[in-house]
Amino acid sequence: MCMLHQVGGTSKRDMKFLYACAYCVGMAGSTSQFFDEVLGERDGVKKELANVHDLAWDVVDKALLSLCKLRIAMILGCDEEVESARQYLDPYKADAITQWASSNIFVEVEKSCLRFTEEFIIDVSSIPDASAVAVREHLGEEGFVTFVNALLVVEQRIRLLLVWSKLVGNTGT
């Protein structure tokens, strides 16, 4: 049996159900909407995913995490999440996000976190120590750890949305 049909004890029948749900949903919404629709009545899983997501947003500055989410969505090519992230941001910052390194709109903590975010998404194993130190200097040791954990939650949700879109097609991403 292939990995797609035996993921973490999930049966082939359950995977077919998830495929069908994803197809019906059409992947047209944000990751939160997507998980809600795809997981249907699997309340335990849905609740845990929502708890992790909510915790990520509770422990990190929402404006900062929204900037990073926007950059992640842009790098990964997830249009739904680009729009989702933009709605909570200053429109000038959202429009200038691709030029964050040279723009005076962004403060140093934002620049440090955006630099780290890009490196995290592109090649997590090659993040320079200087990038991690810069974020840690702004956020503190505990703040750095929570930022990285929140970044991972945001990234993984977007990647899951993209993977499902490739599996079922017709997503608009």
Q: What is the CA-CA span between the terminal residues?
A: 29 Å
- The amount of beta strand, in percent, is under 5%
SSE class = mainly alpha
Number of domains: 1
What is the radius of gyration? Answer: 17 Å
Mean pLDDT: 79
- The CATH homologous superfamily is named AhpD-like
* Fraction in helix: over 70%
Number of strands: 0
In CATH, what is the class?
Answer: Mainly Alpha
Entry summary:
The chain has 173 residues and is mainly alpha-helical. 72% of the residues lie in helices and 0% in strands.
Question: How would you characterize this protein structure?
Answer:
- There is one protein chain.
- With 173 residues, this protein is mainly alpha-helical.
- The chain has one domain (11-173): AhpD-like (Up-down Bundle), CATH 1.20.1290.10.
- 72% of the residues lie in helices and 0% in strands.
- It contains 8 helices and no strands.
- The longest helix has 40 residues, at 129-168.
- The relative contact order is 0.15.
- Residues 1-13 and 15-29 have low confidence and may be disordered.
Reconstruct the topology from this structure.
Elements: H1 12-25, H2 31-39, H3 43-59, H4 62-76, H5 79-86, H6 91-96, H7 108-123, H8 129-168
Helix pairs in contact: 1-2, 1-8, 2-3, 3-8, 4-5, 4-7, 4-8, 7-8
What are its keywords?
72% helix; mainly alpha; single chain; 173 residues; disordered N terminus; AhpD-like; globular
